[in-house]
Amino acid sequence: MNAFEIRGLTVQYQPGITPLKNLDLDVPNGQFLCVLGPSGQGKSTLLRCLAGLLVPTEGVIRAQGKPVEGPDASRGMVFQQDAIPGWLRVRDNVALGSRSTDEQVAHFIRAVGLEGREKDWPRQLSGGMRKRVAIAAVFANDPDILLMDEPFSSLDHLTRTGLHETVLQLWEETGKTIVFVTHDVDEAITLADRIVIVGRGGVRADVPVTFPRPRGENLRMDVDANLLRAALLESLK
Ligand SMILES: Nc1ncnc2c1ncn2[C@@H]1O[C@H](COP(=O)(O)OP(=O)(O)OP(=O)(O)O)[C@@H](O)[C@H]1O
Questions:
Q1: Does residue 159 lie in a domain region?
Q2: CB of 13 closer than 6 A to ligand 1?
Q3: Is residue 143 part of a domain?
Q4: Which residue spans adopt a coiled-coil conformation according to this UniProt entry (predicted)?
Q5: What is the chain's alpha carbon radius of gyration, rounded to the nearest angstrom?
Q6: What is the whole-number distance in angstroms between the Cα of residue 81 and the centre of ligand 1?
Q7: What phi and psi values does residue 219 have, to the nearest 5 degrees?
Q8: Complex prediction ipTM
């Protein structure tokens, strides 16, 4: 079964503003899919539809075979502007609404590198650490699918690289499906099994990414990776 089956997805906000038009896409279970696209071409709109936060004008989305009719605990979300509750300590933030046991919560806190900070308040953490709390919390909630909308775009390069490693480790460990929106070609090449470019209403390009992991710096000098980067940048124009 596919994590998502999207058929004829159209979103018209108002006459003349139709970021998605008749878009079709299947996302297999367990895939790490990155959605790339020029600014304003409907990436966040697509993700909001997948989350069930936005009702499409036309079309159908099925998640694990069932029509998406609203938000659901089986689909976890991490957004760029994620504000974690400031009145909950790290541990309670990660456990919030969670289906995990104490032991599992402790495991996810360790996995994101926040062991020893369980009793800290969010205001005592850096922006990157707060993002780590949000990542631990979404995995602790144990959804089938994670939807991430430019979650790391406000962070500096080093912090972002560390978070990429963490998310990839957790993804490999848990086998979740991830749909990750980014406008950053290098971020997509580092993370994805597959990259789709959304533009002019539909899927403009759909490419598998098969470089062995870990990638990141290893790919800087790789000829094939540079060819892919150039091709993606060209499609984004
Ligand atoms: N609630 C809304 N009402 C009206 N128009 C909207 C609304 N949300 C988004 N839009 C418009 O729909 C288009 C697609 O927006 P969307 O946020 O999906 O693009 P994006 O690809 O995620 O862009 P970015 O990379 O800049 O975040 C844009 O023209 C945007 O102005």
A1: no
A2: yes
A3: no
A4: none
A5: 18
A6: 16
A7: -90, -10
A8: 0.97
